[in-house]
């Protein structure tokens, strides 16, 4: 059954507001509610519907995409064997326990609101190198398939796989291995999400995200796309750090708010090409951006988000 093309994007709000003083966070989220987004990408560490932060911050009309990647990276810093693809049983169990937090959120929100509000739970194929196993990852997906996720898709978010002779950002399984682990599973219940910036980091090219989206779509497994920019330009080092860092750079564009990301590989043409590669069946689309300088205020952050979202919304409607 075909999935209608989404009309509105999600926003990776946690990346946008990172570094804001605590007193500015609530006004920032309130301003996001005026942007017409489908909802926000929420870290699994914040997935507690009963917390005062959640009740104060998450608009009741928003749907959610819950991402595990911040927790995954924190856990890997302490335990290199952590992850859903871990050949180590303890490392794999710890990762499943973290995903269970998203499961519990999805069920609670569905019970409270009478509808499914968690659109997807984005999981990752950690750990790295010989500590990771495609078979172990498939076993984790088998277990997730037996959970009641209240309608949420288990979306494997592809992160850059390592390449010889150059540093990686995340360094998890190859896209082909992730698609293999996903093979034969029910569409809608399982799928793969492409993070544009991380795929570009993997291939050092703006064409790699398009190739990854097309491969997932042709396999009937494309769940979503998260548009996040990146640069390979040394000219941007003073503002954005070393080339090919996973820094959630905004797209380039004519809007004055995007002047700081003029060296981004991602722009309106790349967004449109990526969405064309996705074809008609696409569960969700999101935008994950941050700002520079890190002490930028709420108004600047909202302006960047508005400009980036507008590019994606226009492409969705084309």
SSE order, one letter for each helix or strand = EHHEHEHHEHEHEHHEHHEH
Assess the beta-strand content as a share of residues: 5-15%
Strand order of the largest sheet: 1-2-3-4-5-6-7-8
Distance between the termini: 23 Å
**Average residue pLDDT:** 96
Overall geometry: globular
Secondary-structure class: alpha/beta
Tally of DSSP β-strands:
8
User: Runs with pLDDT <50, length 5+?
Assistant: none
Radius of gyration: 18 Å
User: Main β-sheet: number of strands, strand sense, barrel status?
Assistant: 8 strands, parallel, barrel
Helix content: 40-55%
Number of helices: 12
Describe the structure in your own words.
This protein is 42% helix and 13% strand. The chain has 318 residues and is of the alpha/beta class. It has an eight-stranded parallel β-barrel with strand order 1-2-3-4-5-6-7-8, surrounded by eight helices. Helix 2 (22-32) packs parallel to helix 12 (298-317), helix 6 packs across helix 7 and helix 11 packs across helix 12. The relative contact order is 0.14.
Could you list some keywords that capture this structure?
318 residues; alpha/beta; globular
Concise account of the structure shown:
The chain is of the alpha/beta class. Helices cover 42% and strands 13% of the residues.
Write the layout of secondary structure elements.
Blueprint: E1 10-11, H1 13-17, H2 22-32, E2 39-43, H3 52-57, E3 63-67, H4 69-78, H5 89-113, E4 118-123, H6 134-145, E5 153-158, H7 175-182, E6 190-195, H8 196-203, H9 207-218, E7 222-227, H10 237-240, H11 268-278, E8 284-287, H12 298-317
Parallel strand pairs: 1-2, 1-8, 2-3, 3-4, 4-5, 5-6, 6-7, 7-8
Helix pairs in contact: 2-12, 6-7, 8-9, 9-11, 11-12
